[in-house]
Every structure is written in structure tokens, then in C-alpha cells.
Amino acid sequence: MENIPLPNTNDKKIIIFIMGTSAVGKTKLSLSLANTLKNCEIVNCDSMQLYKDANIMTAKATKDEQLKIKHHLLDILDVSVNNFTRTSFIEIGVKLIDDLFKQGVIPIIVGGTHYYLEGLLFQDNELFQDHESSETETATNEEITTLEDYNLLKEIDPVMANKIHPNDKRKIRNYLMLYNKHKILPSEMVKKSESERKLRYENSIILWPLMQKSQVLKEKARLRIEEMVKQEGIKEIISIYEYFCFEIQEVDELEKKLDFTRGILQAIGYKEFFLFYKEIKKILLKLNLSFKKILNNEKETDDFLKYIQDDITIQDKLSLCKERLLMKTIKYTKKQLLWIENRLLTLPVLENRIFKFGFNSYDSGEFEKSVLFPACKILANYKSNLNLKILKKDFDNYVISEIELKNNSKRTALEEWKKFHCEICNYDFNGPKEWEIHLSSKKHTKKKEKLKRKEKEKENNFKKKELKKENQQENKDQNNEINTSTHDLFKEV
């Protein structure tokens, strides 16, 4: 790489945010930037990388990478924790960033949990906080969210209720609490808050690496999954599940014990492997084995992993789980892009602060040329003069401008927002964007074509039946004619 003029670290505070989809190369970019610009430290903003012992399936930076560049907010939670909130993360993150600034360090915030990233990027208002309540309030809220939840919100604020999913209990709870506290419609608060959002840090820069070919991203995700689910990944998956289920003696009891909506098990990368784990648990119970003890003996570990590799049933389940993980990952990347488009690319406060680096290949040469090198030049330039107008002029090919923000802000107004139901797939979608994406998806197209074939087949079968009836009637008429003629003949005789 060419020499890049490095900024003076004594200048005004700068904070770098790296956002983007899963498998796009955020970790690679953060490590390269920190190594090139110097005096940078990486702050994790992935909600699942906060957990200890969840390293491989969460795509956490390796121990070697963490030794080269200092990382923060990794491995701060035990896997037993299931009540860690976004508000808790923001409190810890803000304090950490302030400490880094005092040390003259440039924080690089990186991670795919954009809901967390947004909390560090903006001064949070009450609307975007996770509301924690007293025991009395909690009991009331539980009653509301389990019995009247969505219908109650629909009665109070139909505009907001129409935008969120009926099963999104966290948002329903928050909106109801806000309304009870302020007696202002949540939809009105949303409109006001979006127009008044303020940056938490004055000199924020956002880098957005974007793979422009969806098929290339999918193949990258597939390769990453294959790499993860090797021996170490297998051990990690089983260990995480066994942490919660080691005492269970009946396979049928597993699902009752596990909560896939909270804590580490809600992470994409573990819940998709439940069917695989069930097969493993059957073996552990049948042979009266402890997986924890197996891991303490290298030979027993190797023997157990070989047994898994040779078992056809287990391997079939593993293949199925990997395919599920791939599908979930791709679906999640689309959700991440929607978040960026709908939550960030519509805000005037981010004008000329977001730099998009489109690329078409994961070849190291292209990534360096299209992403890393321009990103380093932009940061060095900004560190030197802290002038967004100069950045816009010098790096116009990368900056998200006012025009692009206005184009994105033409999204459907809150009042016009509505849900869509696909009769073919029997699934509900929030808003026109999700609906449009679904209609052009392969899954919908295949089901639509299959339905058409069935209808055509049904139509053909109906025609065949009608034709058969006509033939039968015609034959019957002919037989009647013959019988009548024969009868008349005998009568004459």
C-alpha cells in the first residue's frame, strides 16, 4: 500500500464508526485501519460478541488479532446473562469512549448490531431507550404484553401499531410506557425525534463497506460458515448448548429448557444448530458421557469428533443446519441494509459524514483498492482539517450527499405506512420496502410458479373430467339410440 500521511493524534477528538452487513469485511477493515493510522483501538458493537466462550460462531476477532490491536467490549458477559439491554451497552460504551479520548486514542466502533451502534452515534432520547420498570410496573406490563399488547396499542395509536409487528413485545411495551408517562402518541414522538436527532460526538465519521453483488456476498457467507463449522466450531456449539442443558436427561425436554429469544441463544449461529445438538445429546445420554469431561481429554475429544464425522444421521442434520444458517444470514444482511437505508440515510445530521465503499470481489487487491486505501485517505484528510466540505469535494465518489439523503428520505410516511399480507407465502410484511423485496425474492417467485403449475394442473384435470363426462354422455346417448332402434326393429317384426 502507498504511504499515507498519518494524522497528528493530538488534534481534536475523532471517532470512527464502521457499519455494514454480516460477512462484508468490517473486522478486516477495522484491523487494517487501526494498523495503518496508529493510535487506534477497536470497540466492539456486536451484541453477541459481548459473551464469553462465544468466539467462532459470532465471528469474533481472533486472539492473535486482539493481541495486535487492542479490543474493547469483548467477552464481558457470561453466557448465562439474558437481561443485558441496549441501554446497559450505551452506558458502558460511552464511558469507555470518554476514557479513550482522555488517552488520546481514536476509537473505531465496529459491529453489525446497528441498533447498538446507533445508540453510540446519537444522543439518545427517551424514545429509543429500553425502559426498565419497578416490580409493580413490570407485572402490569407483563399483563399488557401478553393479553392486550398489540390491540391496546392499536387502540391508542393505530398509526404506530400498523408499523410494528404484533409480536414485537419490546417495542409495544416501550411505546405503551411512553404514552402512559407523557400522554403523547408514540407516532408523534417518532416524527419529532427523527427530525431532532443530534450526534453524540461532533467529529463522527461513518465508513460503509458494501458488497455490490448479492451472489458474491452469499458465497462469502457460505465459505465463512463452512470455515466456522469445523472442529472448533462444532465444539463451541455443543458447549454452549450443554451449558444450559447438561442436567437434562430426556431429549424431549430440551426445547422447554431453552429460550431462543434472549441472551446468547438468540444469536444467529447457535439456534440454527438445535437439530444437530439434539442428535449429539442423544449420544451423550445413551453412552452416559459428559461433554465437558470429553473436552478435557485430547484423545477422547478426537475420538468423539471422529464419531460425529462418521455418523450419517448427524452429518445430514449438520448439513441442514448449515443451510439454515446461510439462509438466516442472508436474510439478516437484507435487514441490516434496510436499517441503514431507513434509519441513517434519511437524517440530515449525517450529511457528508457517511462514506460508502462499493466493491465486487473479496480479492485482497480489490478490497484494498476499493475500500481500505480510500478509507485511510479520507480519515487522514479529515483528521488534518476536520472539514466536511473539503472531504465532500475531495472524495465526492464516496460521500453520501444531501441529494442521496433526500432521495432516501422519500420513504413512506408514518401515516401512510401499512402492512402487506402474501396469500401465496402466508406471511406478513411491514411497509412497502419489505413487500417490494419479498415480491422479487426467489422464494416467493418459486412458490408463485408452483401455485400456477398446481392451478394449471387442476384446470387440466377439470377439463379432462369434463371431457370424460361428455364422452360418457355421448356413449350413453349412442347406446340409447342403438337400443331404441333395436327395440323398434323387433316391434315391427
Task: Walk me through what this model shows.
The protein has helices at 26-37, 63-68, 86-102, 114-121, 135-156, 158-163, 169-182, 186-195, 214-228, 231-245, 254-257, 274-286, 291-295, 298-310, 312-344, 364-385, 388-394, 402-408, 431-439, 442-492, and strands spanning 15-18, 40-44, 71-72, 106-110, 204-211, 354-359, 419-422, 427-430. The protein folds into three domains: 15-135 and 186-214 and 337-416, P-loop containing nucleotide triphosphate hydrolases (Rossmann fold, 3-Layer(aba) Sandwich), CATH 3.40.50.300; 136-185; 217-331, no CATH class. The strands form two sheets. Strands 3-2-4-1-5-6 form a six-stranded parallel sheet, with helices on both faces. It has a two-stranded antiparallel ribbon with strand order 7-8. The protein has 493 residues and is of the alpha/beta class.
